[in-house]
């Protein structure tokens, strides 16, 4: 079963507090998700100035470019997920199985998302 970690300043963090999500119809375990407790959130909020400074080293255009590339990877590539990888197909299976969504509805949403990042990419090119 895949595990979805917390991202702390872009780094994967596996919490001791995790929640298992199961398929809504079959009960099959889909994924385990790390959860952040109050102390962890408080610690991260205390580091906000550092994270803001790190983001401030980039122009808005650079941040948009990074986000656009991330969206493209998210919809087309196998990406590292804790100690495994997750493909776009895996993501769609997990989302449609965990929620009472019909797979065609999830697929339509996915297609819209791909369209958004393509338009965003084209508009950022000028």
Any descriptors?
7 strands; alpha+beta; 126 residues; two-stranded antiparallel sheet; flat; 5 helices; three-stranded mixed beta sheet
- The portion of residues assigned to helices is 40-55%
Contiguous uncertain segments of 5+ residues = none
What distance separates the N and C termini? 43 Å
Number of continuous helical runs: 5
Across the major sheet, the strand order is 1-5-4
Sketch the major β-sheet: 3 strands, mixed
Listing every helix as H and every strand as E from the N terminus to the C terminus, the arrangement reads: EEEEEHHHEEHH
Q: Give the rounded overall mean pLDDT.
A: 82
Beta-strand percentage?
15-25%
Describe the structure.
The protein is α+β, with helices and mostly antiparallel strands and 126 residues long. The protein is built from five helices and seven strands. It has helices at 38-46, 48-56, 60-76, 88-98, 103-124; strands at residues 2-4, 6-8, 11-13, 18-22, 29-34, 79-81, 84-86. A hairpin with a 2-residue loop joins strand 2 and strand 3 (11-13). The protein starts with a strand and ends with a helix. The mean pLDDT is 82.
Topology:
Blueprint lengths: L1 E3 L1 E3 L2 E3 L4 E5 L6 E6 L3 H9 L1 H9 L3 H17 L2 E3 L2 E3 L1 H11 L4 H22 L2
Structure in a nutshell:
Helices cover 54% and strands 21% of the residues.
């Amino acid at each position: 079963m895949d595990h979805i970690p917390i991202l702390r300043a872009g780094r994967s963090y596996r919490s001791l507090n995790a929640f298992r999500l199961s398929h809504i119809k079959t009960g099959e375990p889909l994924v385990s998700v790390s959860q952040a407790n109050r102390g962890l959130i408080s610690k991260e909020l205390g580091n906000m100035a550092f994270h803001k400074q790190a983001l401030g080293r980039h122009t808005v255009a650079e941040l948009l470019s990074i986000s656009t590339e991330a969206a493209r990877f998210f919809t087309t590539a196998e990406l590292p997920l804790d100690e495994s990888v997750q493909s776009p197909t895996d993501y769609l299976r997990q989302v449609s199985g965990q929620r009472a969504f019909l797979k065609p509805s999830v697929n339509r949403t996915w297609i819209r998302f791909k369209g958004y990042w393509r338009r965003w990419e084209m508009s950022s090119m000028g």
